[in-house]
Amino acid sequence: MSEHLNGGQALIKSLELEGVETIFGLPGGAILPVYDPIIDSPIRHILVRHEQGAGHMAEGFAQATGRPGVAMVTSGPAATNIVTPLCDAYMDSIPMVVITGQVPYPAIGTDAFQECDTTGITLPVTKHNFLISEAQDIPRIIREAFHIATTGRPGPVLVDVPKDIVDPKNPRSAMEWYWPESVDLPGYRPLTTGDPEQIRRAAELILRAERPVIYAGGGILKARAADALRELAELCDIHVVTTLMARGAFPDEHPLALGMPGMHGNYTAVTSLQKSDLLLALGSRFDDRVTGRVPSFAPEAKIVHVDIDPAELGKVRRPDVGIAGDARLVIEEMVRAVRSLLEGGGSFPERSAWKSQISGWQERYPLTYEQSEAGDALKPQFVLETLRDSTPDDCIVASGVGQHQMWTSQYWKFNHPYTWVNSGGLGTMGFSVPAAIGAKVGRPDRMVWAVDGDGCFQMTAQELVTAASERIPVKVAILNNAYLGMVRQWQEMFYEERYSEVYLSPDLPDYKMWAEAMGCIGMRVESPEEVQPAIDKANEIDDRPVVIEFRTDSSEKVYPMVPAGLSNDEIIVDPSQGEGGR
Amino acid sequence: MGTPLTTHHILTVLVENKPGVLTRVAGLFARRGFNIFSLAVAPTEDDRFSRITVVVDVESAPLEQIIKQLDKLINVVKIDELAPGEAVERELLLATVAAGPDVRGQVIELVGVFEGRILSVGWDQVTVVLEGHPDKLDDFEELLDNYGIVSLQRTGRVALPKLDRRTAIPPPDPSSPSRRP
C-alpha cells in the first residue's frame, strides 16, 4: 500500500534514501515547510550564518569525503548567495546538491517577495538544475540530481522547490510516496571505460618516450585513481607533477614526485613539462595557470590526454592520443597494456640523461626563502613549514585564495589523497573557513587546519560562529600580512610598485578578539620562537575552533612565478637563485 | 543575408521537451562564445522530444568543441551534423515590399518566377511568402530589395539528412553523416 506524504516529507525522505547524513543550510520563508520534517529526521542539519558558507561547507565535505555535499537554503537572496559556491563547485568538478526554496508555483513570474529566477541564474554554473513543478516528481528528481552530481564528470546540481508543493497546508503538496529503482535520462550517458585501441597506442608511446612526465590533475582524485596512478608511475618509472587540484593524488615524498607545476609551481615541475617528449595528462585540463602561453607549452611533447569529459580532449591542446573515460579504469587498462608490451619483449629507452637533468634542476632550484632576522615579521613559509611538521601526515588542509594558498600548496607535503581542500578554478577568496568546517564534519577523525589570508578571512569568518556553536573543532592559521598579498605582488612586479587599494591594516580588525567573540580560542604570534608553542597549543584543543593570527612579512612574494600570458620558459625563480632557466 | 557556407555548419539537435531547454542551448552558445547563424525549434514526431536546427559559425569555435559541449547538456539526446551536400534544407521567408502601381506587376511577376505567393495586398505594398532552399531565399531577397523591402522575416533553416536510396548497398562511409562524439 502506498504511503501518503506531503512534498516536504518526501524531499527529506528522498535525501535520507540518498544516504545524506548532513545538510548545511539556513531556513527562510519559501523553504520553511521542508525544515519542519528535518526535526524528525536522522539527518544532521548545520545552521550556517550566511548561505555562501553552506555552499562552501558542502564543497569541503565533498572534497574530503568523495561523497556529495548537500546544502539547503531559501529563495531569492539566499539562492543568489549560494551562486558563488555553485560556480566554484562547477569549475572544480565537485559533487554537490543544492536545494533552494522558491515562491509558490502560481506566483512564479509575478515578482513575488523573495522571488528570483534561480534556475535561470544558476544555469551556466551548474552541471544541471531542476525546477520541480509537482510534488509527485520530488523523489524522481532528487534521485536524478544525485545521479547527475556524482557520475561522469562530477558537478553541482541545483533543485528549486516551489513552496506550494511542499507545504502541507496546500493540497498541491499531497503525493504518494515511491522511490525510483533507476533513473531515466535519455540524454545522459556518462562514459566509463576508454577505447582499448587508444589505450594500446598510449602504451606504445610510453615505451618510446625518452622524457616522459605524468601531468596529473584533479580527475585522479575524482576517479579515486591515486593507487592506479602510483602503479603506472612506478611500473613505467615516470615522474609525476600534481596540479593544484591534484595535490595529494601522488605522495610528495615519493622519489618520482615533482610537486606542483604552473604559474607558482616549482622550477623542476614547470621545466620538466616544458622539456618533456611525452605528457601523460591524466584527469587534467590544460588550465591557463598550468600551461602559461599555450603555443609555447611543452613544445616537443606528444600528448596522451585522458579525461572523462570528451569536451576537454582538444579544447586547449590537440592530443596525439585522446582517451575519453574514467581515469581509474583507463589507467588500470594502461598498466595492463604496458605490461603486455613489456612481456612481449618491449622495453623502455635509456632515460638516465633525463633523470639526471631532473635531479640537477631539483638541486639547483629548490623552493627557497630567506629566514627572517630577530625582530622582523614572520616569514609565511616558515610558519607553514612549522605547521606542516607539527601536524599528522593525514591532516586535512583547506586554504583560501592568494599567496597563502600558493605557499601552502608549495610547502606542504601531501602524502595522502583528499587531504587538500581548495578553490582552484574559480579562485574564491573566503573559501577556506567554511570549507574546513565542511571537511571536519565529513572527516571528524582527522585534524583539519584552514590556512587563510587576512583578506580572505574577513570574507567568511562568521562561519566560525557556526563551528563554535556546532562544536566543530577546526583550526585556522591566518597569515596576516596586512595586505591583499597576491594583488600587492602583482602591483609590485607589474604596476611599478603603485599600490592601489591593497592595504588592509595588521590590527583592524583585532583577529584575536574577533576569534574570541565568535567562541573560538584566539592567539596572536609575532615572533619566530612563538610559532611552535602556539601551534602545539592549538593542536591540543579539540572542543572548539582555534584561530592563530601570524603577523607575516608583507613584502614576501611567491616564487617561482610565470607572469600571466608568458611562456613557462620565462619562469622567474627566487631572486637568490639568479636568472633561473632563462 | 548571404550565407558563406564554408564557415557555417548545420547541427540538428534532438532535445528533451523540458522547460528551459532552449535557454540551456542558447545559454551554452553565449557562454562559450559560439556564434549562432540561425536557429529553428519545433516538436518532433515523438512528443517527448523537440528538434533544434542550428546553423553555427565554426569560425568562432571548432565544430568538434561545439558538439561536445552541447552533448554535455543533460537534456540533449542526440546531435547530428549535416554536411550541406547530405542534407535537405528548407526555410520560409515573409516580406512586405514597396509595390506602387507602377512596379506592382514586376513584383508579382518576380514572385511568380520564384513560385512564391502573395499573402496580402495594400495600396502601395504587398506581403509575399516564399518557401525553399535558403540560397534561393537569398536570391529572392536580393531581387525584392530593388523595390524596397519594408519588413522581412525569415524562419531560419530546418534540415534533415538526405535519404540513402542505395538501400541494397551498405553506406560507404560509416562516420557520415552523424558526427556524434
Could you characterize what this model shows?
The complex is a heterodimer of chains A (582) and B (181). Chain A is α/β, with parallel strands linked by helices and 582 residues long. Chain A has three domains: 4-176, Thiamin diphosphate (ThDP)-binding fold, Pyr/PP domains (Rossmann fold, 3-Layer(aba) Sandwich); 196-364, TPP-binding domain (Rossmann fold), CATH 3.40.50.1220; 380-559, Thiamin diphosphate (ThDP)-binding fold, Pyr/PP domains (Rossmann fold), CATH 3.40.50.970. Chain A has 22 helices and 20 strands. In chain A, strand 19 (521-525), helix 22 and strand 20 (546-551) form a beta-alpha-beta unit. In chain A, helix 8 (196-208) packs across helix 13. The model of chain A has no long low-confidence stretch (mean pLDDT 97). Chain B has 181 residues and is of the alpha+beta class. Chain B folds into two domains: 5-87, ACT domain (Alpha-Beta Plaits, 2-Layer Sandwich), CATH 3.30.70.260; 89-159, ACT-like. Chain A, domain 2 (Alpha-Beta Plaits, 2-Layer Sandwich), CATH 3.30.70.1150. Chain B has helices spanning 21-32, 63-72, 104-113, 134-145, and strands spanning 8-16, 35-43, 49-57, 76-82, 87-98, 117-121, 125-132, 149-154, 158-161. Chain B is elongated. Classes of the chains: A alpha/beta (582), B alpha+beta (181). Chains A and B meet through loops of A and helix 1, helix 2 and strand 4 of B.
